[in-house]
Structure formats: C-alpha cells, structure tokens
Amino acid sequence: MTEKEKARAVNYGLKLLTARQRTEKEMADKLKEKNYSDEIVQYVLAYLKNYCYLDDQKYVELYLREKININRYGTIKLRNKLFQKGISSELIAVGLDSIDEEKILENAVYLADRKIKSLKHDEYMTIKQKVYRHLVSKGYSYATIVKALNIVVF
User: Which candidate, 86, 27, 29, places its Cα nearest to that of 53?
Assistant: First the structure.
C-alpha cells in the first residue's frame, strides 16, 4: 500500500461525500467497487471518521429528519431503509426512539387525507382498504394507521 494509493483512495472517498452523505458501509462498498484492497478501505474509513466526514450517528439523524419531514415515511420503513444502508441496530433504535410520535401520526393523517381526496367516487370500504394499503406501503404501524383513520372522518 503506497502513499499514492492511499491519497487516491482518500480523494475518491471525499469526492463521494461531496455528492451526498454516506454510511460507513456505503463508503466501504464504493471503495471495494473501485478494487481498493481491504487495507486501503480500512485506512480511508479511519481517515474519514477521524476528520468527522463519516459519522453513522449523524447520518441517522439527518436521514430520519429528511425522510420524516419530506417523504413522510413511517417508522417501519425507516428502520428497514437504515438497516439496508448498513447502520447498526443500536444506532437505528436510538434514532427511532428520538422521533416524535405526534409527528408520525400527523404525517399518517396527512397522507390518509390526501389519499381519500384522490378516491372520491369509491365505496367506503374500498377507500378504507386503499388508504390502509397506502399507509402500510409508507411504513406505518397498524396502531398508527388505526389512529389516523379514526382522526380522518370520511
């Protein structure tokens, strides 16, 4: 492992981070795709973590904030997405515990209301089933969906 290889790998890692924030797993996978050795990958990860460019805990916080406020995902989908990105179960649990349940319910009500408005001419049970399926696809729990449907009177 030469200094030139290290520098090239670090520069590649920094270039990847200019596009968007990444998890440690995502960074390692990208470096391995470029055929860097495991030794160089570990060096780059340590370098980026040392300078706080790579921080899974901060990534979880930013990811949850974005996906809750913009995409309006539920906790189930958030957990699965973070797990796919290689985040540890402990960090996921800490991040999800910090979520305001009222915000999740508010998002579920908003999505249910929008779905109901798009289904004006369907029967009551059909609307209810479609809204339920829509909220499940967004990652909401059964309890949250029931609360949202009780709030949204149609």
Answer: 27
